[in-house]
Specification:
Length: about 450
Amino acid sequence: MFNKILIANRGEIAMRIIRTCKEMGVKTVAVYSKADADSLHVRFADEAVCIGPAPSNESYLKMSNIIAAAEITNADAIHPGYGFLSENSKFSKICDEHEIKFIGASAKMIDQMGDKASAKATMKAAGVPTIPGSEGLLESLIEAKEIAEKFSYPVMLKATAGGGGKGMRAVWKEDEIEKAWESARQEAKAAFGNDGMYMEKLIEEPRHIEIQIIGDSTGKACHLSERDCSIQRRHQKLTEETPSPFMTDSLRKKMGDAAVKAAEYIKYEGAGTIEFLVDKHRNFYFMEMNTRIQVEHPITEQVIDFDLICEQIKVAAGEKISGKNYLPKLHSIECRINAEDPENDFRPSPGLISNLHLPGGHGVRIDTHVYSGYVIPPHYDSMIAKLITTAQTREAAISKMKRALEEFIVEGIKTTIPFHLKLMSDKAYLSGKYTTKFMETFSMEN
């Protein structure tokens, strides 16, 4: 087991990792930008090192500063959390070269699965269902038009290096494709420095359902059931739940088996998710793989009583997994509480939290790094907390979430709490019959 782990992240995920490390008897090092000097992860780690000014590219994305912090504190492993450098193959390789264990995927694995076009080809070879589309990157607009005609509209143009919905365009008819092609490539080039595009058949009435997997160094993998992440805004998840209200025992087995097959085919080591689109007929298709821990991992932990961060660290230290698959015993929902104004197109709302009251009670979990008097900096992701409720049934978990949201008081800034309260009373959400298009018709005014 490691003696000391440096956490190359901030906010609630840094706190989450610190907690598990303490329970495992592993020392921790926090890194922080000048804007995060008063964050809780700095206070609760055993050591803390300032790695630069507020901008991410001068601190949390500055690999040389993070490696230097690990070396001066004698950390023998780095946990990247999610976001920032968690899926950066160069950083994984640099850690390896400095004989510091990267608690995540290898550089080769990140490259293999991070590029969406090559990931799709790999999954196809593994026998995992994939969305019909181009075999590789599109060479030209002419080829894009030919493939769109072959599979028939609607189709989806996607940036091969994409993420967070950038470089994606739905194309419903032929006269829209040229404009979509140009704008998607420009956006991808600006965001990722790579304007490579591929095309897929657009899945109508889709649900976004992911399977959590863990693999060890022997090539063995297991799954920890599904999470439904279909409630999204601009391809950013707002709330997640497990089990999915759309899931059947038969579909869970098929998707779980496919996810394990995918992980074992590439000999995946660590925690990851295989993300699928599921159509209204319950046909499922591989979408992408995330080679890191997910924001929404707590709901999986709650329904199977399992510490995913602990397992991640153990696997990185060379321990083997049990190999058994896990099924949900309870129902759990996560609401992402962001410093945003849902009444004003979710505009960011950084600033001073003048008063804070966190909900509690049986079946209520909060992962957060904020407190009364904390100033939310404007430089990073706007999520300030994750509120998770767990109960015997979906209905009970929703009732518990409503009660917890009503108890959750944040003054001084705007948050998404009013949105989540409205969501928990929405008929379409309550029915469980929602898709990734849910937010297109949802209104705070209804």
